[in-house]
């Protein structure tokens, strides 16, 4: 019998003895009775902190807690449902990437994660150009506010995850292929959270952190109201080979009436595609041969047939006005996006798009992070950055709780985390949803209105700096 299993049986035996002393009928005290007693009154194991759900955000939470000096004496467990597969950097790029902003990079440097990412591969984005198919309006951003002139880095999800895992301290336990059947959430801090696993074990914890995704069982067990909707859109991802090698440090995004298409740099001759479109068109595109898909993508990037001549005329006059009011700012040279030589075989994939937000992120002894708390459209590339922001904020909250002598699951302390993150997350989500709705129409009056507004913002450098600083924070 293993030490772990022996301890579990010893724990169950203690519970059975206690029940017998309290007058529990002998028929209940047996193998099944011992398991029942263990589930209800004496869990097999206890941890100070349990993170339910791995992925990028869950593993980042384990890494952050493990590196906290104020939490160094706490017993921490991460439950991951997927198996622990060996990984090495593949020659070909993965089709799932993140745009890691400046705040995330700073956070990762603190944990020692960023040096691993840089050693593997990460492509800097020094400029971003956004334009649309219904007019000639555009806006550009650069990284002048950053020391390295970088807006973001495009990093494959697998690279980020592997780098985070390498930095998780040894005292943090990670259990793979761990499926949670249920959570017993207490109504106050007088009781602990109890998790029941699929193999029958039970675990109690002072604080449960839900990092189990958009369909979070932790959130449902909390009874928290969840507001959200589907966009009737799908996101298509793929890895692209460019027609020629270039200084590929520009992120391109073009808004089509059906949704935005974005090219994110991976190397001098490769980019990652994130194309949001209707479910019907996505199904068609995913069913095309690689050559036909490449042709359709190049049309989406280059075709100007949807531009309205009336809007174009008024917009040109508006640019002349802006040039008079803000000389030199509105006459920015438009760069031409790269053309695509081919989509790499086997790299296309699709996923549904939607928005969701938990009314509360916390309850006694429970906190939600990442997609379990919020879900956004990928058009701004902020989803995972919001999750990493949750991790940093919750770590600070727990460190302050320890410093002040409060319990880890104290609801009032956790509310400070909720207040901080909801203030930022809700504003970001509202902005992203507003952009989606603003550009989800080809109506000439609306096209004219947004074109005039976009060009005006592009001419106002201080306002553009505020926008990019918010996206980087």
From TrEMBL:
Which SUPFAM superfamilies does UniProt cross-reference here? FAD/NAD(P)-binding domain
Q: Which GO terms describe its cellular component?
A: extrinsic component of mitochondrial inner membrane
Family recorded in the similarity comment: Belongs to the UbiH/COQ6 family.
EC no. given is 1.14.15.45, 1.14.15.46
Where in or outside the cell it occurs: the entry states: Mitochondrion inner membrane
FAD-binding domain segment(s): 51-316, 358-425
Superkingdom classification of source: Eukaryota
- Which named protein is this? Ubiquinone biosynthesis monooxygenase COQ6, mitochondrial
| Record's keyword terms, sorted | FAD, Flavoprotein, Membrane, Mitochondrion, Mitochondrion inner membrane, Monooxygenase, Oxidoreductase, Transit peptide, Ubiquinone biosynthesis
Entry keyword annotation includes Flavoprotein: yes
Q: Pfam families in the record, alphabetically?
A: FAD_binding_3
- Pathway entry: Cofactor biosynthesis; ubiquinone biosynthesis
Specify the enzyme's EC class, one word: oxidoreductase
